[in-house]
Structure formats: C-alpha cells, structure tokens
TrEMBL record:
Main location: membrane
Key word Nucleotide-binding present: no
Domain Type II secretion system protein GspF: 153-277
Membrane association type: Multi-pass membrane protein
Transmembrane segments: 85-108, 114-130, 261-284
Annotated localization: Cell membrane
Keyword Transmembrane: yes
Full protein name: Tight adherence protein C
Length: 286
C-alpha cells in the first residue's frame, strides 16, 4: 500500500516538475547571472518562479517584507525585489524537488520512513531557501566586525602620516580582501559618482548591518565635521578601543565554545556511569 501511494505521488510530482521546468524557460534570464556557489542548483529555480505565479503561492505579506529588507542590506535597494523573488523561488524549487525525490525513493524501497524523511527534508529545503539570505547577512556582518579593527588601525596610520581621509579610505579598501573591504570599495565608487563623503560612509555603515560599525561611522562623520586636526586623534582612539573589544569578543567566543563542549562530555560521562552501574547490578543479580 505504501509503495503504491508513494510511487503515484512521486510520479505526479515528477511530471509536474518537468512541466514547470519547461514552462520556466521564460525565467532563465533571471537565474543566468547567479553564481553557483551562492545559489546551488540555480537551474531549477525556474520551477519555483512558475509556482510563484499561482495566487496562493505568490510572495507577499510578512515573508516578502522580511526577504526584501534583507535583500536591501545585502544587495542594495535597486536589486532588493529581484533577490527577494530569487530566494523565494529557490525555496519553492527545493521543496518540490526534494519531496518528489523522497516519494519516489520511498516507493522504490517500500519504506514509510523514507516517505516521512522526504517530507521532513522538503520542509528543511523550504526553510533553507527562505532563511539563507538572512544567514548570509549575519555572516557578512560578523566578518565586517572582525575586520573593522585592522581597517581602522591602518587608516589611523595613513591619516597620521599626512594622507587625507578619502585617499586613505580608497587605499585600504582597494588593497584589502574581505567583506568590509568590498563594501569600502562600493563607498569609494559612490564618491566617484558624485555622492558626498559623509553620505557614502553612512551608506557603508548601513550596508554592514552592524550596530558597532554604524556607531563608528557616525562618530567618524562627526569628527570630519570638527576639522582635519581632530581626525588623527579620533582614529587612534578608535583603533585602540576596537582592538580591545575584539579581544573581549574572542574571549567570549572561547568561553561559549568551551560551554558547548561541556554538554557532550557530560553525556559521555553519564553514559559510562550507566554502563558501569548496569554491569554492577547484573553482577549482583547473578
């Protein structure tokens, strides 16, 4: 019975998948430029775009607002709606593909467990698609916060040696590798396109999505307003403070890692005690 139900359901899902894949050729241009390392199995996202055409499955409401907000920070306001729809299409595509595969596998193996596992993994794929952009944003924010002390200390050295802030910013951003340096290059590009320095720096702070960096950029703009004489002292103070904060964060992460390791050790210890006690009681009963 299980084999028949799973095979029928899997076959229907497979046919629907192929139909949507054929219909989704009109969306191929939307996924063509996506990088495979950031968007796995991007060629099947056209299936998700087709499902999103249906009124009950259209991207809207709270989910749309959350995806669009994350996309604005991660990719810029101009591309926010596009990336929100891409991630939603990815989620729908993964759900359909995994559920189809799980049903066919359950039917082939005549296994109820594979059927339930397929449903579970399909839901995981759906959640992954909807949440992966937020995870990328969190990771980028953490990377930016980790790289900030080195950026500020290098800028402090350059400004103290007589270089103006804009040139120091361009030099540091142009030579570094990492998320914060890429965002600095974006700010430099904005300045070359006619944006004011303060506006570009403020946008840079918002793009990091880090309260710490936003606070730093706000203080930097205030220091810029006070004159060139204040800037070297400000950067030197900030460099010292940020390195101290980074040391504290590393210590906290070390403590958290130790705490996470403690639980498995306690479970292993408890298991050993149970085995010893079981052996002891077995010996007594004999």
């Amino acid at each position: 019975m299980m084999r028949s139900i799973a095979m029928i359901l899997g076959t229907i899902l497979a046919i629907l998948f192929l139909i949507q894949l054929f219909r989704g050729q009109k969306y191929e241009e939307l996924v063509e430029g996506l990088e495979e390392k950031d968007f796995p199995l991007k060629d099947i996202y056209t299936v998700g775009f087709c499902w999103a055409e249906l009124p009950p499955l259209r991207l809207r409401g709270v989910l749309f607002e959350r995806l669009e907000q994350n996309a604005k920070v991660l990719y810029g306001e101009m591309y926010a709606e596009y990336y929100a729809n891409v991630y939603y299409a990815m989620a729908l595509s993964f759900f359909h593909f995994i559920l189809c595969f799980g049903c066919l596998l359950a039917g082939w193996q005549d296994s109820r467990n594979f059927f339930y596992l397929g449903i579970f993994l399909a839901i995981v794929g759906l959640i992954y698609g909807c949440d992966s952009m937020r995870q990328k944003l969190v990771k980028r924010t953490e990377n930016c916060e980790t790289e900030l002390p080195e950026v500020v200390s290098t800028m402090a050295i350059l400004v103290n040696s007589g270089m103006i802030l804009r040139d120091a910013w361009n030099m540091v951003g142009g030579r570094g590798e990492g998320d914060i340096y890429a965002l600095m290059r974006d700010a430099s590009e904005d300045i070359r396109n006619g944006h004011a320095d303060s506006e570009a720096i403020a946008k840079f702070g918002r793009a990091t999505n880090s309260p710490e960096i936003i606070k730093f950029t706000s203080a930097l703009m205030q220091s810029m307003g006070k004159g060139a004489g204040e800037l070297p002292l400000f950067l030197a103070r900030q460099s010292s403070d940020l390195w101290n904060e980074k040391k504290q964060r590393l210590l906290q992460k070390g403590e958290q890692a130790s705490a996470k390791l403690l639980m498995p050790i306690m479970l292993i210890f408890l298991g050993i005690i149970i085995i010893i006690l079981s052996s002891a009681f077995a010996g007594i009963s004999l």
